[in-house]
């Protein structure tokens, strides 16, 4: 009796110890709390520009505003002139290419294709005034547009196809008096609407971020940290942190989550270990384009259809998104999109005007990296697919002239003649055009970085570590537990188990049968004995 | 027949804890392998690791126990009656022949058992333990950018670990079945549970008394 009581007590103590070991009390994530505390305090402006006499006057041109800015901030224009927002290009080392200058002047995309020959319209997103063609003076400080980034009144906006000049209705005095730290709308004016409409290009940057909820973006949510773009994309001397790999190519001045969150942000060692190979975005951005759809496909080959000689467009009644435009072709839009996943080491290569097409579909940009590369991590990527104009004889992509003010200036959007548009565009960039054009399939890779979901919505392990429909099904250059297995081993293993089971069952049956038979013999013997 | 105290307390504790851990490790392990889902991947991985550490501690204690008590000698393979033992399991058992070897405190295992368990201890367990430890510490680069294990492809580590797992499952199936080949189908299991087994009388008498005293 004593023994039973004693062992029950021992067992209970054992169970209690096990429960104690198994139970992990949730510890506060001090790193995260510290960040929240830091970013809860919003910066306030040390000066009120509306009180400056220099700004209390009527400005006749936007350049006069710039001059007024430079009177006090007398070195800042030099920083701006050195920036890529101004130069639209950047010199960097690119694999297989060496030191090269790349940017909007020589790199293409598979949306509106390229800025060259269309500057008048494209310069609506240049931080300068008067970029009408490729002869823009990049040294003239008067043409720096301070207001587009620093207007806090939301009064300022660039005019449509006005070479970067503000719309005529803008009250420059009001703008000049209300400058300050860039707000979401300053960045969003270009970065939300690039490609000709809201959320066309990025998928993770769009106007819903102006006022959003934690479910869409934990950082920018009005009911969350309410952070602005420049809280993360800080700009030491106007050199803004962060790279967009549709035009960037080198792993420099990048902005990554671990700048704030460190590389061990989880209260879990197993998750922290993933940060060596998996970018934060991969798990923490389960889907992008959460609120409004983004363009996933753009087929230029369909452009040019006219109704009664007039261009037209088709709008999807459900989403309100345009699915066809005579000037641009057909589009496919998607909302709440699961990203595709690629290895990426921070370096990218680009198709540069004049390059030979070396693969079909043509990769307009290519994210470099592989499982074997220690610097690579798995990133979520928006892949934009489409087709665009191409010269099969020179084997080059064509920079077409799309925009012109009037008909008869070879612009495709006015004349709907690819021949003329290709000729004019290629002539402008100084490249040959054979006179033949075709449409070739293209792909463009956009790493997804924004619309970070609340941590409860981060991907669960099974999203990737599963045999079927793993999110990483396309990345086959490494072994991942749960997804991968050796088919031969699994087959042999199962065979071994089945063989063991079958052997055991047969052996057992054999014993039972023989036992019965032996007993019969025995009883027969007994019977015979008895009879005798 | 004599009731003999054959399996000591630690031995039984070790055997059943190990059995439970191996069963649990197989269950969670094959979930991590992707064969089925049961606890959920995260829980499976975590539990597998905790159970692995528990098993490692248990193994450490059992190695200590085997050497301090001299019980390790039980696993020294003898080939003299090996053939007779194999013949018994393949032929004799069906004819109702008696066991060719006698079980005693000094000789708990028949020659075939001794050889199999030696294989278990020298091949299967080390295969699983070593590949398991490499798997557990397999991190290409850890938080401090320190390379720990990366030269051996994970594919090979996982292959060997899974191979070991299949072998151990096969072992477990046959092992459980073989327990029914004692005097009665349940006598072996009962012995492993209570420690006592009815064994044939022989010179083990004094030993048995010693054990009684220990109790």
UniProtKB/TrEMBL annotation, chain B:
Residues 7-195 form the Cytochrome b561 bacterial/Ni-hydrogenase domain. The lineage of its organism: Bacteria, Pseudomonadati, Bacteroidota, Bacteroidia, Marinilabiliales. It holds the Pfam family Ni_hydr_CYTB. One of its GO terms (molecular function) is iron ion binding. It is a multi-pass membrane protein. It comes from Marinilabilia salmonicolor. This is Thiosulfate reductase cytochrome b subunit. Belongs to the HupC/HyaC/HydC family. The chain crosses the membrane at residues 50-67, 114-138, 158-178. GO terms for cellular component: plasma membrane. SUPFAM superfamilies: Transmembrane di-heme cytochromes.
């Amino acid at each position: 009796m004593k023994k039973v009581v004693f062992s029950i007590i021992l067992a209970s103590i054992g169970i209690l110890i096990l429960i104690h070991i198994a139970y992990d009390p949730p510890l506060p994530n001090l790193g995260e709390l510290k960040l929240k505390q830091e970013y809860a305090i919003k910066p306030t402006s040390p000066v009120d520009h509306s009180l400056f006499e220099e700004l209390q006057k009527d400005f006749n041109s936007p350049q006069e505003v710039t001059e007024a800015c430079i009177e006090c901030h007398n070195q800042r224009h030099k920083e701006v002139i050195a920036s890529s927002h101004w130069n639209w290009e950047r010199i960097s080392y690119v694999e297989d290419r060496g030191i090269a200058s790349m940017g909007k002047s020589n790199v293409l995309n598979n949306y509106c294709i390229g800025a060259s020959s269309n500057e008048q319209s494209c310069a609506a997103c240049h931080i300068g005034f008067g970029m009408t063609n490729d002869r823009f003076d990049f040294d003239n400080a008067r043409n720096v547009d301070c207001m587009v980034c620093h207007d806090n009144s939301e009064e300022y906006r660039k005019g449509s196809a006005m070479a970067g000049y503000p719309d005529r209705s803008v009250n420059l005095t009001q703008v000049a008096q209300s400058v300050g730290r860039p707000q979401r709308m300053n960045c969003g004016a270009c970065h939300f609407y690039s490609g000709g409409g809201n959320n066309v290009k990025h998928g993770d940057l769009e106007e819903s971020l102006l006022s959003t909820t934690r479910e869409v973006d934990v950082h920018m949510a009005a009911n969350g940290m309410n952070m602005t773009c420049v809280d993360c994309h800080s700009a030491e001397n106007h050199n803004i942190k962060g790279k967009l790999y549709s035009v960037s190519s080198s792993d420099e001045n990048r902005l990554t989550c671990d700048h704030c969150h460190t590389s061990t942000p989880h209260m879990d060692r197993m998750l922290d270990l993933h940060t060596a190979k998996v970018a934060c975005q991969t798990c923490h951005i389960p889907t992008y384009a959460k609120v409004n759809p983004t363009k996933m496909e753009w087929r230029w080959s369909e452009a040019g259809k006219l109704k009664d000689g007039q261009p037209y467009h088709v709008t999807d009644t459900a989403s309100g998104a345009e699915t066809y435009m005579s000037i641009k072709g057909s589009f496919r839009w998607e909302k709440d999109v699961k990203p595709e996943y690629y290895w990426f080491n921070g370096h990218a290569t680009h198709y540069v005007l004049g390059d030979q097409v070396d693969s079909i579909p043509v990769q307009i940009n290519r994210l470099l990296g592989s499982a074997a590369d220690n610097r690579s991590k798995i990133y979520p990527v928006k892949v934009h697919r489409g087709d665009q104009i191409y010269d099969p004889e020179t084997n080059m992509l064509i920079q077409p002239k799309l925009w012109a003010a009037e008909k008869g200036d070879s612009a495709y959007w006015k004349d709907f003649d690819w021949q003329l548009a290709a000729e004019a565009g290629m002539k402008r960039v100084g490249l040959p055009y054979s006179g033949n054009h075709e449409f070739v399939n293209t792909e463009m890779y956009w790493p997804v970085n924004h619309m970070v979901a609340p941590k409860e919505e981060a991907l669960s392990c099974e999203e990737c570590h599963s045999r079927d429909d793993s999110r990483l099904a396309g990345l086959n250059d490494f072994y991942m537990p749960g997804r991968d297995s050796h088919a031969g081993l699994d087959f042999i293993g199962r065979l071994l188990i089945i063989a063991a089971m079958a052997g055991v069952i047969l052996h057992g049956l054999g014993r039972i049968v023989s036992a019965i038979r032996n007993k019969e013999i025995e009883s027969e013997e007994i019977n015979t004995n008895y009879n005798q | 027949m004599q009731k003999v105290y054959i399996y000591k307390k630690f031995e039984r504790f070790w055997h059943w804890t190990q059995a439970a851990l191996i069963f649990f490790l197989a269950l969670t392990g094959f979930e991590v392998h992707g064969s089925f889902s049961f606890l959920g991947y995260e829980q499976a991985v975590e539990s597998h690791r905790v159970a692995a550490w528990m098993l490692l501690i248990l193994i450490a204690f059992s190695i200590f126990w085997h050497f301090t008590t001299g019980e390790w000698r039980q696993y020294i393979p003898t080939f003299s009656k090996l053939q007779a033992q194999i013949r018994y399991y393949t032929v004799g058992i069906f004819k109702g022949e008696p066991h060719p070897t006698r079980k005693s405190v000094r000789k708990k295992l028949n020659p075939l058992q001794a050889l199999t368990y030696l294989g278990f201890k020298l091949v299967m367990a080390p295969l699983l333990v070593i590949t398991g430890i490499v798997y557990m510490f397999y991190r290409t680069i850890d938080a401090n950018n320190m390379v720990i294990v990366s030269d051996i492809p994970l594919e090979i580590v996982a292959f060997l670990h899974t191979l070991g797992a299949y072998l151990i499952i096969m072992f477990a199936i046959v092992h459980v079945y073989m327990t029914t080949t004692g005097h009665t189908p349940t006598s072996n299991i009962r012995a492993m549970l209570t420690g006592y087994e009815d064994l044939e009388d022989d010179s083990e008498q004094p030993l048995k008394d010693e054990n009684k005293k220990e109790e």
